[in-house]
């Protein structure tokens, strides 16, 4: 007799293929999940490491900013102290300026001229006095122009007093102080304000 297989072998083969397919699909899914998860963990650990390095750098930058601010304040203090030292040095150098001015005035005043008053205003000196003749006054102006310390002698007034027995004429003149002495005098006045 002929053997007839009445079992649904095609359906069972299909079920086994489906079962293999789903098993393979689940295995591939699990492998893909593991790969994606491990890649994600790897990148997340790299991101966390970079974030830690960034935070470390930010902290170090803040420390350096504080140090830079301290350096700036120290530089400001240093500049202020240097200004004070310069003023003290200039005062030290200029302490004989008054004597130099009086010495120079004594050298340039010829016989026949008498100084009655000296007033210093800024970098100029106002000279008030009496002169026996205008020639003596002209000689004094020439001596001032040749001086290393004075310049720009400007007579403001020359008057004659008829009541004077010696016929002396009164004069008023303004003379500017030049050169290093001017700087020292101006800085001395600025230093006294500090």
Report on the architecture of this protein:
The protein is an alpha+beta fold and 194 residues long. It has a domain at 97-193: Gyrase A, domain 2 (2-Layer Sandwich). It contains four helices and four strands, in the order ααββαββα. A four-stranded antiparallel sheet has the order 1-2-4-3, with helices on one face. Helix 1 (9-93) crosses helix 4. The radius of gyration is 51 Å and the shape is rod-shaped. The termini are far apart.
CATH topology of the domain at 97-193: Gyrase A, domain 2
> Approximately how much helix is present in the residues?
55-70%
The tally of beta strands, per DSSP, is 4
What structural category arises from helix and sheet content? Answer: alpha+beta
Q: What is the average of the pLDDT values?
A: 84
Largest sheet: 4 strands, antiparallel
Strand order of the largest sheet: 1-2-4-3
N-to-C CA distance: 134 Å
Report the CATH superfamily of the domain at 97-193. Answer: General secretion pathway protein M, EpsM
Assembly state of the chains shown:
single chain
Given as residue ranges, the uncertain stretches (5+ residues, pLDDT < 50) are none
The CATH architecture name of the domain at 97-193 reads 2-Layer Sandwich
Strand and helix order? HHEEHEEH
Strand content: 15-25%
Cα shape: rod-shaped
Q: Tell me the radius of gyration.
A: 51 Å
Number of helices: 4
Give a brief outline of the structure.
The protein has 194 residues and is α+β, with helices and mostly antiparallel strands. The protein is 64% helix and 19% strand.
